[in-house]
Amino acid sequence: LTKFTKLCEFPMLETGLFFLLSWSAFLSAEAAGLTGIVAVLFCGVTQAHYTYNNLSPDSKMRTKQLFEFMNFLAENVIFCYMGLALFTFQNHIFNPLFIFGAFVAVFVARACNIYPLSFLLNLGRKQKIPRNFQHMMMFSGLRGAIAFALAIQDTESQPKQMMFTTALLIVFFTVWVFGGGTTPMLTWLQIRLVI
């Protein structure tokens, strides 16, 4: 649509179609009983490589601003929703052993991804990923908004309520401790900040 038609003459329409096709990937996956989040992820990867590069300069600017704005809104909404869920959800089940086990599992799984994958990537790279960068990737990473969104979808049984409570606590812990500790950790690992 963006490459072989004259949509570039209508930047607003071009941006609208870009957005609607992204949204249709989510809706199609949900309608088929699949994970819409993963569909949007792969749609975004594909659009970043192909569709975005075929947009007109005006549409590129509009599309970038639209998605930055939506990112800002979504981030605020999800954290407000998490805060509300922490204090208004009636059926929290706190199992300290399960919560501790989940924390350990998250960190072990993260380490099992970061270090071996960095090693494999470094085999074929001239500019290697330094150890301090690997440690920073281990420390930072995603904060768990997707885990929260998946956990809150079904909280009918006690095990699912316990899973939801645990996911919520892990998200809050990583946001407060790791999110707040990002700048000191960068300094400690001697990673130069480029602003």
Automatic annotation (TrEMBL):
Chain coiled-coil ranges: none
Lineage: Eukaryota, Metazoa, Chordata, Craniata, Vertebrata
InterPro entries reported in the protein's UniProt record: Cation/H_exchanger_CPA1, Cation/H_exchanger_TM
Protein name as catalogued: Sodium/hydrogen exchanger 9
Segments traversing the membrane: 20-45, 66-87, 93-112, 133-152, 164-189
Primary localization class, coarse: membrane
Domain (Cation/H+ exchanger transmembrane) ranges: 4-188
Membrane topology: Multi-pass membrane protein
GO biological process: regulation of intracellular pH; sodium ion import across plasma membrane
Alphabetic keyword roster: Ion transport, Membrane, Sodium, Sodium transport, Transmembrane, Transmembrane helix, Transport
Annotated localization: Membrane
